[in-house]
Amino acid sequence: MEWVNVTLVREFVFFGFSPLTGLQQLLFVVFLLLYLFTLSTNAIIISTIVLDRALHTPMYFFLAILSFSETCYTFVIVPKMLVDLLAQKKTISFLGCAIQMFTFLFLGCSHSFLLAAMGYDHYVAICNPLRYTMLMEHGVCMGLVAAACACGFTVPQIITSLVIHFPFCSSNQLHHFFCDTSPLLKLATHHSHLSQMVIFMLGVFVSVIPLLLILVSYICIISAILKIPSSVGRCKSFSTCASHLIVVTVHYGCASFIYLRPKSNYSSSQDTLISVSYNILTPLFNPMIYSLRNKKFKSALQKAMGQPLCPVN
Description:
The protein is mainly alpha-helical. About 75% of the residues lie in helices and about 5% in strands. It contains ten helices and three strands.
């Protein structure tokens, strides 16, 4: 029997921002300001929806859940990243890496299914307006969110269990700024083709299934909108769905680029750039896209702040 000297990895060292050593203090200030603005924006959105009874409807319930999810999403990644930007040695323990990866994947997968639930809400509102209150009662909304969380919990649990059992013996240098699946797979000394295919297929599942549900919803929505005789009514209905479509496009565009491609096409520099946008900018813009395009929400926010806001066309 041949004996091999193996030293197991106890911690990982992040090298995601190593090419930008001279800019890390500037990046710290920029990312900190964006993070604080994201937290304050989402806090305002959630508090406005909770405090104003006029916003206690399914659409705003999902918006509040989306804002809360985005806040948790940034909390998993950004604080550690900010600390590392000022630290000499940017490390994370093996257990801490596993927890970060699971939580990140849980929130990301739940986000996909939450967007599908929001698409269903739009479908019911436009295609079955007379039955909307009955079909989208509070219990149904809670059930949709619970189902999104259940799917978001199961898939990351399997992926994380597979990844953390891979041997990481050759190096602990992670060319990323947080523990994500692709850079960890690249770092793994050995993993079976079956394990890689399982991880890839699970990624396809949590991406494609919600996307198909959204597409089916919008096929029905477009069909219903085209039957509206008034051009004003058609424009108003399309405008109602525009925010959701923008958020879906950004979410699936970034997620597909990062996760739905073979490992051989992995580029650490490209993924770092996309991940910064995905993890810092989208949690800031997604709730704003929903809220600031909405007359009812702006009216409630104006009432809460006691001052006029810019008018919405």
